[in-house]
Hints:
By secondary structure, this protein is of the alpha+beta class. Helix content is about 40%, strand content about 20%.
Amino acid sequence: xxxxxxxxxxxxxxxxxxxxxxxxxxxxxxxxxxxxxxxxxxxxxxxxxxxxxxxxxxxxxxxxxxxxxxxxxxxxxxxxxxxxxxxxxxxxxxxxxxxxxxxxxxxxxxxxxxxxxxxxxxxxxxxxxxxxxxxxxxxxxxxxxxxxxxxx
Length: 152
């Protein structure tokens, strides 16, 4: 594994343990430069390709999915472990579809449906980017159509 600090590959594993939900192995590593960092090892059943709205294809990047979810949940009262479980659930759901190619629309819908139950504010945040809201009225129309805020 390459050290993120000085980009050399001389690292050793100090500690390994499964994550709480058992979907990954968390490894603490020590570099010869003295820096410590954490890596995660996950099972990948198949290589997934994302088909974008414009038809372009790219390999599925779990990190990109993770970043977009973390942005939507920024400053929300959801702990990191819950967020990681949510991301793993979305990734597993995509693999369980049994397809090697999956549309970005399908991924976006999965994330939105999950966020609707997890945190309504994050749901609206994600939807504003995913559905490309341009004006205040777009937000108002979207929120008026959903019932996540009416339950509370």
